[in-house]
Amino acid sequence: MTSILTATIDQERIAAAVREIIAAVGEDAGREGLAETPRRIAQLYSEMFSGLAEDPREVLSKSFEESHKEMVILKNIPFYSLCEHHFLPFHGQAHVGYVPEGRIVGVSKIARAVDILARRPQMQERLTGQIADALMEALSPDGAAVVIEAEHLCLSMRGAQKAGAVMVTSATRGGFRRRGVTRSEFLALVQGREFSVVSSQLSVNPRWEIPVGLTVERVQAVAVEGEWRELLARCDPAYPFLSPAWHRVWWEEFADSSREALILRVRDGETTRAVAPLMRDGDRLTFAGDTSICDYMDLVSADPSIPARRAVLESLLRALGEERWSELVLWALRGDSPTFEALQSVCGELGLTCETEVEDVCPQLDLPGDWEEYLAGLGKKDRHELRRKLRKLSQGGEPELEVLTTPDEVTAAMDDFVRQHKTSRADKETFMTPKMEGFFRRVVPVLAAEGAVEMIFLRLGGVRAACVLCFRTDSELLLYNSGYEKQYAQLSVGLLSKALALKRAIDLGLKRFDFLRGREHYKYDLGAKDVPVYRCVIRRS
Length: 541
Known about the structure:
Blueprint: H1 11-24, H2 37-48, H3 56-60, E1 63-65, E2 72-83, E3 89-99, E4 103-105, H4 107-118, E5 121-122, H5 124-139, E6 143-152, H6 153-156, E7 167-174, H7 175-178, H8 180-191, E8 207-209, E9 215-219, H9 221-233, H10 244-254, E10 259-268, E11 271-281, E12 284-287, H11 306-320, E13 327-334, H12 338-349, E14 352-361, E15 364-366, H13 371-377, H14 380-392, E16 399-404, H15 407-424, H16 426-431, H17 434-448, E17 453-460, E18 463-472, E19 476-484, H18 493-507, E20 512-514, H19 521-525, E21 532-540
Parallel strand pairs: 2-5, 12-13, 19-20
Antiparallel strand pairs: 1-4, 2-3, 3-6, 6-7, 8-9, 9-10, 10-11, 11-12, 13-21, 14-21, 15-20, 16-17, 17-18, 18-19
Helix pairs in contact: 1-2, 4-5, 10-17, 11-12, 15-17
């Protein structure tokens, strides 16, 4: 544990800064409702950051001798802290346990130590570890363990705006880290469930028996492709990046000797519940693929309920306990994915840490009932510009859409798509390397055979002026890539090909148009809103 900062809160300086903030947002710091606000906030910060001047080890050192050597737990300790990234509160409950080695401490001292460490600019992950470290340094127990469950207002009221989402972190030290049984007992008691000792062993075949009624086995992708495809067909939405066909082509085009496929199948008896398309990359395990071409990733499981996904995750993580890895990286998870929603709590139960960050955004649009309703929902300027450009479009010839969906059609048109893609922008030409082009030429017809592709050309006077390559699910159209002929640039064919593809999705009665990864300005001009995609890094405590 690092040394404790001792500080005096400068209330006058805080109040002066608050007055500057009030002025900066265009308000009058002298009006009646705001006149006392700087002073109040200065007093608030003095209280919220009072822990900077206190050392939790001093509080915990007021202990006494006792021969009790069984686990001691104080549950449901309420706390309030401020996230150091946005200075917005996060609050929740801490569960603290330790196994004494001759000395115990009054329970109020544990609660006080939590408050001291919470009342400073904090991160939940660091707070969890600091509480455990303070116990170890002050009491020298056999071990200490901490679990914190908290809601972060920086997630609830801004950014992703996921009100009610709870982040769970855990920290284990000493015997809690060394002994899985001790850790499991602590987690069971914190959760109020019955504790039992369960073993998990690796058999002669690469198959694990998991204590939730499921089994996990390592399989070859080709051996499970049929079950994998059936599971994906029952997912909503069934993203093509999760299909066995996509996986197969990606692996053949991009894999090298430093990577090893690790495909895990989760079964309940003879019924396949999930497929996890993983790979080993050095000492890391990750989803198979890469972020440059896979916009979403996840476990392939048809049951979206949180209890079902928790069971699958627990099974997989217990099975992977038998594997060698430094971290498990689950990237490109949507915030509404059951995997993302269940992951933190499952990791906490198993004594794993899970760090989560926003990896990228996928701007998207919930589609209205018709085109006029869509236009009415745009801002005045964007609506005017779109209508003006659509009127001007016919200067290049009669506009029409050519929609290609079969393997033969998209294969025949691939030369036009690749050329338009590479010549429309310098960064796209850099992206479309010979290896990447080979991947596109293989994967697009394969996905077209599964009914998942719409290659849409905007034709002007019979000439292919622009193209958007879209993926299709039962409820969504996903804009994956695009290009256009430079000689038509003055007619905004790049933007309008996307707008007309969006109109087609509305006409088809689809629910959502997803622009996929990236913050390109045109997406927002067409009314899209950011949806975050998360990266979760799991490590052994």
